[in-house]
Amino acid sequence: MRVLCHVRRLCRPEGIVLDLTTVPPEAAVERDGVVLGRLDQAAFLERAARSEEAVDRFVADSLLVEEASIELDVLKHFDSGADLLDDVSGRGWTSVPPGLGSTLERVATPLVERSYCLLRRLRIAGG
Fold first, then answer.
1. Among 22, 80, 111, 113, which residue has the fewest nearby CB atoms (within 10 Å)?
2. What's the average model confidence in pLDDT over 29-41?
3. What are the tens digits of pLDDT across the range 59-87?
4. Residue 28: enclosing H or E segment and its boundaries?
5. Structure confidence by residue, pLDDT tens digits, 42-55
6. 28 vs 3, 54, 61, 89, CA distance in Å?
7. Is the CB of residue 81 less than 8 Å from the CB of residue 108?
């Protein structure tokens, strides 16, 4: 909520804010279009939901006006399972479940992490 207040102060009246957030289900790990498993993003998705609740409060209080929204997939490409494991190990709120981790250790071909997202275009209320 504090971050949104700060962002709103920095933007000019009628300025545009783009809000991109991850939404359930948890990100899928895919190889050649086949889902190998899902990352454990429970803690991350909880934090994302709280952020979206704050945005929704700003909309309800007429501080932001939602002009458009779209659900989309964000794809992150990796050369191998080891690369994906290394990337996820540096994230604070996401982990790889043990079963998926052992599978990924053996994958030497390209993978995709598919995250489900909501993109919203919001306008700063004038005044």
1. 80
2. 97
3. 999 989 999 999 999 999 999 999 999 99
4. strand 28-31
5. 999 999 999 999 99
6. 29, 26, 35, 16
7. yes
Residue 39: both structure tokens together: 């990352």
Q: Residue 80 to residues 23, 31, 84, 86, 121: CA-CA distances in angstroms?
A: 25, 10, 7, 10, 35
* Alpha-helical runs (H) found in the chain: 2-10, 42-60, 81-89, 98-105
Phi and psi torsions of 81, nearest 5°: -65, -35
Q: Considering only CA atoms, which of 39, 44, 54 is closest in space to residue 23?
A: 44
| Mean pLDDT estimate for the chain | 92
Position 15 confidence tier, pLDDT thresholds 50, 70, 90: confident
Q: Which among 5, 105, 106, 127 has a CA at the least distance from the CA of 55?
A: 5
Give the residue among 52, 25, 21 at the shortest CA–CA distance from 39: 25
Strand 111-124 with 34-38, pairing: unpaired
Which residue shows structure tokens 């779209």? 70
